[in-house]
Amino acid sequence: MSLQEFEEKVITKGKRTGPCDLIPLDYKTDEDAVLKKEDIVLKEPGSSEKTAQTLSRPTDRVFADYRTTSSQYNAVVGGIPPTCYPLYGVPSIRADIPAPRFRRISDNTNYGDQATAYALLYPSIYSSKGVYESDFFKTRSKEEMARIMRNIGVNISDESFNEVWRQATLKDHRGEVCVESFRNVLDEMQAAHLKSR
Predict the structure, then answer these.
(1) Domain named EFHB C-terminal EF-hand: which ranges (predicted)?
(2) Residue 164 pLDDT more than 90?
(3) What's the CA gap between 43 and 53, in Å, rounded?
(4) 21 or 92: whose pLDDT is higher?
């Protein structure tokens, strides 16, 4: 909305002293003025039309950098690890004994393989698709692993697959291979290939 000259005078001069008084040219800006002179700007650079400057709310400056402490916890990848803040209500993890392969219902010991509250509130892409950590660490046969890799879109030759399988079996003391160990070997081979370039 562009302002005409008389509108600008009315807005910047404030109230008139009487109903019939005209605003004199030497009239000083009143305390009751709607806008100050500096709040009226050119509509476009180089144009003679004037308009009121867009006013900012005082809260715009306050909330621009407003963050809560809870929003900073693990808000991004590489966020604050759970070791840096207290996990109230979570029992101690028994790291001195290995987790049993088959747990009893009455066994309420925390072996460190249970999900945290953060993992429950913000599940990973795998768990939202129904694939859990136990599925990644379940031992697989060579044929089943080949089928899994084909189904997720990993195109790998038979000789490369056999080499990755051999290296993955060497990493486990029982010679068993799971999806996670197979994926780790694939990542290591790809990193070595990229470094050799």
Answers:
(1) 118-191
(2) yes
(3) 9
(4) 92
Which runs of E-coded beta strand occur in the chain? 40-42, 50-52, 139-140, 177-178
Q: Return the DSSP state at 174.
A: T
pLDDT in tens, 104-116: 888 888 777 777 7
Q: Parallel, antiparallel, or unpaired for β 50-52 and 40-42? A: antiparallel
* Residue pLDDT, tens place only, 120-148: 788 878 878 888 777 888 999 999 999 99
Q: What is the 3 state secondary structure string of 145-161?
A: HHHHHHHCCCCCCHHHH
Q: How far apart are CA 94 and CA 74, in angstroms?
A: 24
Q: How many residues does the chain have?
A: 197
Please give the pLDDT value at position 74: 47
Alpha helices by DSSP H, listed for 42-178, are 58-63, 69-72, 117-121, 125-128, 133-136, 142-151, 158-171
Instruction: Output the CA angle 170-133-90, nearest 5 degrees.
Output: 120
Chain-wide mean pLDDT for the chain? 75
Q: In the numeric block, which tokens belong to residue 112? A: 């460190």
Compute how many other C-beta atoms are within 10 angstroms of the C-beta atom of residue 179. Answer: 20
Q: Distance between CA 19 and CA 161 in Å, rounded?
A: 94
What are the backbone dihedrals phi and psi of residue 82, each rounded to the nearest 5 degrees, phi first? Answer: -65, -10
